[in-house]
DNA sequence: GCGGATCAC
DNA sequence: TATGGTGATCCGC
C-alpha cells in the first residue's frame, strides 16, 4: 500500500505480466516440445493465454515467488562478478585455457554413439493401438499432461501442462488416461530393435543410447547409413517413429537428436571441427543438465549459447565457485569443446537407490485425512518394495504445503535396521507427519521459520514416502536363505517413539486389510502405473546387482547423457557410462573437475562399475577401500570442485561396499548362517542364530559389526574405467527369476 | 545423516 | 476451481 506509485489496483489492467513469468509459465524456452514450426498459435499468444488462465492460482503465486528468488540469485551473481573483476589478476583466460587444453587431450572421436528418442512417446503408443487418433490433438495423463501429440503441440500444449490450461489453448483437446502397459511394451519392442545394432543403454522408457561403432565397422557403413537403417527398422517393426542424434559422444548425440525431431536424425562427423561447430550455437538450455535456473544464471552474466562459454571464460572463471551445481566451470568448458562420455552400458538392478510413492490431493488440514493418505502411500510403497524385494534403512516423508512449498523429513531407525513392511512404513510416516504437525504451532509461537505460511495448522496438498539406503533382499535371501529372518528383524524395529503410534497402527491394520477403494486412484489405475513402469525398467536387465552405474562425473566434462532420467516413468532404465578415468590433478583454483557436470540430476553414479570388475576373490578391508577412495580425490580438500568429485566417489564406494557385504554373505551354506542385520557369519543352530539376531534389537548397539571385506576395485584412475568386458561375472546373483 | 535445490522425463 | 509422479545428485550444514 505504501508503495510510491499510486497505481490503483483497480479491476482492469493490473500490472503487466513480467517477461520472466510469461516465459516460466508458458515460455518458448521450454522448447523441448516442437511448438516452433507449424504452430497455430504464436509464442506470444500461448504465453498470454497461459498467463491469463494461471495468474490467480496458488501455483502461479508460488512460481512468482520462485521467480523472485531466482532473480535475487542472478543479481547476487552479477554482484560477485563485478566484485571479482575489480581484483582480477588478468590471467583468468589462461587458467581456462589450461583446463581446455587438458580436456582437449581427453577427446575421443573413435566411437559412433547414437541417442534414440521416440517421438511424443506416450501419445504415439496410444496412436499405435488406436489409429483413429492419428493426427488428432490429444494429451496423455488425465488432469496433468505427461505429453501431448504433435497435433496438440501446434496449439502450445506440452508436457507437464495441466489439462484445463491445455484446453484453453486447444479447445478440442482430449486427454487420455495413462496406460503404462502400452508404454512398457512399446519400449521393449524399440529396445529390442536397437539391440541389434550394438550395446544399448536405456535412459528412460523412450530413450536409449546405442553404440554403433562395431556395427559400422562390421557392415562397413557410415554412421548415417547405420542410423538410417536403425530408424527404419524401428518404424517397420514397431510402427513408432524415433528421432536420433549420432556423434562421437553422448553429450552431442543427445543434443543432436533434438535437431530434426519428429522422425528425423542428425549426424555429426567425428572430427573436432564438426563437433565444435555443431555445439557453438546451441542454446545453453538445450544441454543436458542445464535447466531453468542454470540457464537464467548464465544468461544473467551474458551467456546465451555454448559458444559464449569460451568468449566469457574469464568471467566464468571469476565466478566459478558461485555457478551452482549445474554449471561448474569444468563442465561448461567440456561442453564448449563438445566433449562427452562415450561408453554405453546399461544399469542393473542394484543401481536403484530409492523407492517412493507420493500422492497429491485436495489441500486439507484434516488430521484424519492426512493420516489416511500416509496409510495409502505406505501401503503402495510396501507393495512396491516387497515386489522388488528391497528394504531400506531410511524413510523420508515429503509434505507439499497448500502453497506448493515442500519439505522433507527423514528418519533412520538404526544403523542396521532395514524396513520394508507396511506397518513400519506407516508408523514412521505417521510419526514424522505428526511431529511436523505438532511442532508447527510451537515454532510459529516462537517466531521461528516454517514453510507453508504462518498458519499454525498444517495444510498439505501432497504427502509422500520414500525409502532409501536400500538393501537387496533378493540377493541376500538367496544367498543365505534367511529371508524369514530378515523380515522378522525389520518388523521388530525398535523404538520409534510415538506413544500414540498404537492407535495409529491399529487403524492401519484395518485399512491394511481392506483395499482402499475409496477415492482416487488407489487401485488399478495409477498404482499399477508405477509398479509396471518400474518393473519395465528393471526387468529386462535385471540381473545382478552390479552394474555400473552411470555417469561419473568428472571426466571430460560432461556427460549429459548420463542421463538421468528415468523418471517419468519408471525408473529403471538408466544408462551407464564409463568414461575414461581421469582423476584429479588440477590445481587448486579452477578445478572443478569433479562433477563436471552432469550430475544434475539423475543418474547413476558409477559405483558399481568398479565393483563388478572382479569376482570376489581379492579383497581388502573396508577401511582400506575408503582410504583409497579419499585419496583418489583429495582428502580434506575444500569444497572446490575437485572435492566434489572426491566426495562423490567416496559415497559411491561406500555403497559398493554395502553390496559387497551382501555378496560376501552369499557363500553361507550348510550350518553356516549370516546375520541379516550385521552380516556376520556364524556356524551353529537356529536357536543360536535367533539369539544373535535378537541382540540387535535388544539395545541400540548391535553386536560388533564385523569388518567387511570387499574386493579391490580397479583403479579409479586410469585405465580402469573402461574395460567393459570383465565386468559381468559376479553379477549373476539373482538370476533370471526376477519376476516380481 | 538431513533437508533444500535442481534436473530429467 | 484447477498445476503430477518418480528418481537422482550435489551442497551446505
Ligand atoms: N514432465 C514429463 C515429461 C515426460 N514424461 C513422459 C511422457 C513422454 O511421452 C515421455 C518421454 O518424454 P520426452 O521428453 O522424450 O517427450 P516426448 O517423447 O513425449 O516428445 P518428444 O517428441 O518431444 O520427444 O516421458 C512425463 O511423464 N513427464
UniProtKB/TrEMBL annotation:
SUPFAM superfamilies: DNA/RNA polymerases (SSF56672), Lesion bypass DNA polymerase (Y-family), little finger domain (SSF100879). Residues 113-291 form the UmuC domain. Residues 610-634 have a biased composition (Low complexity). GO terms for molecular function: damaged DNA binding; DNA-directed DNA polymerase activity; metal ion binding. GO terms for cellular component: nucleus. Its EC number is 2.7.7.7. Keywords: DNA damage, DNA repair, DNA replication, DNA-directed DNA polymerase, Magnesium, Metal-binding, Nucleotidyltransferase, Transferase. PANTHER family: DNA POLYMERASE KAPPA, DNA REPAIR POLYMERASE UMUC / TRANSFERASE FAMILY MEMBER. This is DNA polymerase kappa. It comes from Rhodotorula diobovata.
Amino acid at each position: 500500500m505504501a508503495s510510491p506509485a499510486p497505481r490503483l489496483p483497480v479491476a482492469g489492467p493490473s500490472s503487466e505480466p513480467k517477461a520472466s513469468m510469461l516465459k516460466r509459465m508458458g515460455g518458448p524456452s521450454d522448447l523441448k516440445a516442437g511448438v516452433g514450426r507449424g504452430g497455430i498459435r504464436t509464442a506470444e499468444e500461448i504465453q498470454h493465454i497461459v498467463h491469463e488462465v494461471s495468474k490467480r492460482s496458488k501455483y502461479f503465486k508460488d512460481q512468482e515467488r520462485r521467480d523472485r528468488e531466482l532473480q535475487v540469485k542472478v543479481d547476487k551473481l552479477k554482484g560477485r562478478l563485478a566484485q571479482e573483476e575489480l581484483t582480477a589478476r588478468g590471467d583468468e583466460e589462461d587458467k581456462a585455457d589450461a583446463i581446455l587444453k587438458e580436456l582437449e587431450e581427453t577427446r575421443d572421436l573413435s566411437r559412433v554413439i547414437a541417442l534414440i528418442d521416440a517421438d511424443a512417446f506416450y501419445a504415439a503408443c496410444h496412436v499405435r493401438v488406436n489409429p483413429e487418433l492419428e493426427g488428432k490433438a490429444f494429451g496423455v495423463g488425465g488432469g496433468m499432461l505427461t505429453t501431448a501429440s504433435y497435433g496438440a503441440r501446434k496449439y502450445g500444449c506440452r508436457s507437464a501442462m495441466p489439462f484445463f490450461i491445455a484446453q484453453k489453448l486447444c479447445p478440442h483437446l482430449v486427454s487420455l488416461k495413462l496406460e503404462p502397459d502400452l508404454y512398457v511394451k512399446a519400449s521393449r519392442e524399440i529396445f529390442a530393435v536397437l539391440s541389434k545394432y550394438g550395446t544399448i543403454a536405456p535412459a528412460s522408457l523412450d530413450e536409449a543410447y546405442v553404440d554403433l561403432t562395431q556395427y559400422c565397422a562390421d557392415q562397413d557403413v557410415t554412421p548415417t547409413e547405420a542410423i538410417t537403417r536403425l530408424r527404419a527398422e524401428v518404424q517397420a517393426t514397431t510402427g513408432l517413429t524415433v528421432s536420433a542424434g549420432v556423434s562421437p559422444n553422448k553429450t552431442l548425440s543427445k543434443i543432436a537428436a533434438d535437431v530434426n525431431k519428429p522422425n528425423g536424425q542428425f549426424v555429426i562427423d567425428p572430427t573436432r571441427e564438426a563437433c565444435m561447430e555443431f555445439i557453438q550455437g546451441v542454446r545453453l538450455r538445450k544441454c543436458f543438465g542445464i535447466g531453468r535456473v542454470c540457464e537464467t544464471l548464465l544468461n544473467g552474466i551474458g551467456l546465451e549459447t555454448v559458444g559464449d562459454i569460451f568468449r566469457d571464460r574469464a568471467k566464468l572463471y571469476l565466478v566459478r565457485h558461485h555457478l551452482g551445481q549445474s554449471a561448474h566451470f569444468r563442465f561448461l568448458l567440456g561442453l564448449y569443446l563438445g566433449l562427452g562420455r562415450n561408453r554405453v552400458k546399461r544399469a542393473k538392478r542394484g543401481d536403484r537407490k530409492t523407492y517412493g510413492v507420493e500422492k497429491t490431493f485436495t489441500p486439507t488440514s484434516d488430521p484424519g485425512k492426512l493420516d489416511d493418505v500416509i496409510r495409502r502411500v505406505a501401503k503402495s510403497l510396501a507393495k512396491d518394495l516387497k515386489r522388488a524385494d528391497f528394504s531400506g534403512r531410511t524413510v523420508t516423508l515429503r509434505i507439499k504445503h497448500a502453497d506448493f512449498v515442500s519439505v522433507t523429513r527423514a528418519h533412520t531407525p538404526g544403523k542396521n535396521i532395514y524396513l520394508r513392511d507396511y506397518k513400519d512404513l506407516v508408523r514412521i510416516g505417521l510419526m514424522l507427519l505428526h511431529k511436523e504437525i505438532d511442532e508447527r504451532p510451537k515454532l510459529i509461537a516462537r517466531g521461528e521459520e516454517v514453510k507453508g505460511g504462518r498458519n499454525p495448522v498444517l495444510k498439505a496438498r501432497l504427502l509422500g514416502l520414500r525409502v532409501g539406503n536400500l538393501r537387496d533382499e533378493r540377493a541376500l535371501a538367496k544367498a543365505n536363505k534367511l529371508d524369514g529372518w530378515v523380515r522378522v528383524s525389520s518388523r521388530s524395529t525398535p523404538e520409534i517413539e510415538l506413544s500414540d503410534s498404537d492407535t495409529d497402527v491399529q487403524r492401519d491394520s484395518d485399512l491394511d486389510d481392506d483395499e482402499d477403494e475409496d477415492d482416487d486412484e488407489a487401485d488399478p489405475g495409477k498404482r499399477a502405473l508405477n509398479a509396471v513402469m518400474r518393473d519395465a525398467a528393471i526387468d529386462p536387465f535385471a540381473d545382478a546387482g552390479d552394474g555400473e552405474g552411470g555417469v561419473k562425473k568428472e571426466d571430460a566434462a560432461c556427460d549429459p547423457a548420463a542421463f538421468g532420467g528415468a523418471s517419468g516413468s519408471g525408473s529403471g532404465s538408466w544408462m551407464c557410462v564409463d568414461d575414461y578415468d581421469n582423476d584429479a590433478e588440477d590445481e587448486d583454483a579452477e578445478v572443478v573437475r569433479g562433477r563436471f557436470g552432469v550430475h544434475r540430476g539423475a543418474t547413476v553414479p558409477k559405483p558399481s562399475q568398479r565393483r563388478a570388475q572382479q569376482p570376489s576373490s581379492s579383497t581388502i578391508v573396508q577401511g582400506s577401500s575408503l582410504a583409497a577412495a579419499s585419496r583418489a580425490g583429495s582428502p580434506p580438500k575444500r569444497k572446490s570442485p575437485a572435492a566434489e568429485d572426491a566426495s562423490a566417489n567416496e559415497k559411491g564406494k561406500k555403497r559398493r561396499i554395502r553390496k559387497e557385504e551382501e555378496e560376501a554373505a552369499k557363500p553361507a551354506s550348510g550350518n553356516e548362517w549370516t546375520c541379516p542385520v550385521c552380516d556376520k557369519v556364524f556356524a551353529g543352530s537356529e536357536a543360536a542364530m535367533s539369539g544373535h539376531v535378537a541382540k540387535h534389537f535388544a539395545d541400540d548397539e548391535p553386536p560388533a559389526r564385523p569388518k567387511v571385506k570387499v574386493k579391490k576395485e580397479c583403479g579409479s584412475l586410469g585405465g580402469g574405467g573402461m574395460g567393459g568386458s570383465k565386468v559381468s561375472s559376479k553379477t549373476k546373483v539373482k538370476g533370471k527369476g526376477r519376476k516380481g
